Amino acid sequence: MSRILLIILILLVLPGCRDQKIVEELGFIHTIGYELIEEGENSGKLEVTISLPVAETLKQQTITTVVETSKESRIFLSKKTDKNLVSGQVRSILIGEKLAEKGVWDLIDTFYRDPVSRPTVKLSIVKSNPKQLLSKDYPEYKMVDTVIENLLKKEARLNTIPEMDIHKFAKDYLDDAIDPIAPIILQSEDGIMSDGIGLFSGDQLKTTIPAIQARIFFLLTGEFKEGDLLIKNEEEKVLFSFLTNKRSIDVTLGDKEEIDVKLSIDFKGFLLEYQGNKDITNEKEIEALENYIQENIENQIRDILETMKEHQIDNLGLGKYLKQKMDYQTWKNLDWPKTIDRVNVTPSVTVKIIDTGMVK
Amino acid sequence: MYINKNLSVHVKDRLDYCDDLVIRTFPELKIEVLYFGHLVGEEELKNNILQPFSNTNEEEVKIILRRKQYQQEEDINLMVKGVLEGKALIIYQNSLAYAVDIYVPKTRSVTPAEIETVIVGSKEAFIEDIGTNLSMIRRRIKSDCLKVLSYNIGTITQTKMYLLYIEGITSPILVKGLQEKINNIDTKGVNDLNQIIQYLDKKPLSVFPQYFTTERPDVSTSKLLEGRVLCLMDGSPYSLSTPTNFFEFFQSPDDYNQRWLLGTLSRLLRFAALFITLIASAFYVAVSMFHYEIIPVQLLHEFIQSRSKVPFNPVIEALIIEGIIELLREAGARLPSKIGQTIGIVGGIVIGTAAVEAGFTSNVLIIVVSVSAISSFVVPHIVMTASLRITRFFFIILASIWGFFGIIFGFVIILIHLCRLKNLGEYYLKPISPLSLKDIKDTIIRAPYQFFKK
After folding, report:
1. What ipTM does the predicted assembly reach?
2. Domain end residue (candidates: A145, A178, A209)
3. Which of A9, A12, A24 to mutate to test the interface with B (most CBs of B within 10 A)?
4. Contact B292/A11, CB-based, under 8 Å?
């Protein structure tokens, strides 16, 4: 009998510990945007914008506040809505370009530590102001935040921007052999569009790679396994669809302080479209076309490496391969990625066209 | 086996513990007649046995026995077999045996099973007359190993009850255990076998049924063959079998009559239904009160929109709708079947649609509760369905206190309870707990018959 009484007592007392969140009383932050204010009386403060769906109207509500640190933003934002703000449904974080140049780790750390927010929250850099991006009225979209989420997902699948969530960002940030990257989106006249990759040094945005080069970047990271590649100059335009991609990175440590890296990419595919004056029914001409594609890609790779060396960053993760070849002390002394210009990278691309298809 | 001396003793020995065996003696003629009362026709019995032997004397008997319907039997196995097949065995002078076929089984008014219906298989169901029920089983098991013990239950009603088991398969401990329990029943009277069960229950406070009842003779027969003890009661169209385990309630004759793959899949479906019916509503309550994080974002908007009109807390909402479903179910069970359809229309269309439109409940909950109600009907045994109905409310309350943690907590409590349940010394969760991999092929799955061979 006393056992039953004890159970009843526990049952009566424990509900006090409950952390009830009734679903219709909650405001689910879907997208959260941060930007640094540089002018006016609030200079140096953070501008925090959130968007949340309003169930009754099925529309999106956007709230903005200006705060000193990101941690206190919840209190100020909460004043402006009738709902309890919760971060368990946050899908994407938008960071303004200006803030990204100062450093973003503080913001990401907040989400990374929160057990409620998922590690797959997407991170992206906004070229214009996140507040404007979120609060502008787009007649064609019902909810901008879901459009952004889907855009990022789709473009990442097409390999024009990286799929960057806070877990991956944090992993790359804390790893000393690689620097993180993030997709860039901007507000254009037609709506929202993605615009290449932002390259970070630590948690600071350094430079960007345009969307057209982004696929070459993913060829190098090995994430781009199959898809279409457009190569063109004044005379010729080639749309090349490839099926297999083999990438290997060989590191050779020289006698003194020389480091040679051989980046070989080997892929096979077929022509989707060709505009130019080569006769692609001829085998020799095809070979020439293959060489042309190889050269073109190699040049683009050199461009990317040049950009990285210029900013002393390593977003490709070459450091990981170097680290495997040396002992820990040497690696520590190397002070990667500041020494990236000591590395000689030789790109070597092999292209094999296996089918010219139905092209004339 | 040819025995000339003491034939009567030998035959009776083979048919020992068969309380349904009728033995008539004509001492002045030195004749004994053996037959099963429920397998023979009364008219035939009168014409072939009673009339010829009651108006005769010792000299004429020999002449009567030369008539062609009396076939002389010399093999004792054939004699026993004959009795089991509905013949009357006439033993003359304790050394000669004659069989006469008077087989007219009691098939009158046998109806198809109404609750435990099957798609493929026998449509036969027990009826209220115990003799008919016993003859259904005797017709299916033509063996002298099938023993029948007779009891009378109720100090005033003196209701007839048979305890059946197969000698050599059923453990004698089980028979003795059940005999003892039946003897200990102290009541003025019972009306149905399902009441007896409650007298036999070891843990009357448990929500789970501890004895398996069925209205199907084919199921009863297979229980006997599995080594269980079976009970029949006069006036009750059910049989009781024991020891019972949890998984029996999820088996249907369809699993065995159809191909094994289909049997396995439909059995897995039933276990899925078990979980759905137990936790669907509780899951809804937990998600809408605690774990908003797991709602897919596409569903989230519609969900909040429909929830935002509802004036009640999710747990009150779920209890109201579950309560309405219980009302519908109870009304459907009490009403004559012709009016019963109206209930479906009122319940399904009027309450379902109108409640959502009036903002009385959210449409997600209507779906959840309906799915859980449908799932509860997938469980083939109505007794288990009823238990699950009660348990579901337990889960809803727990989910409203602790969310997912509460649901897991409830599962653990129920699992502990099930593991502790015992039935005549056999565990309720056998063969899962204690684990016996050998026997698992006919619990959650139904393996091909070739695998059942030892």
Report:
1. 0.78
2. A209
3. A24
4. no
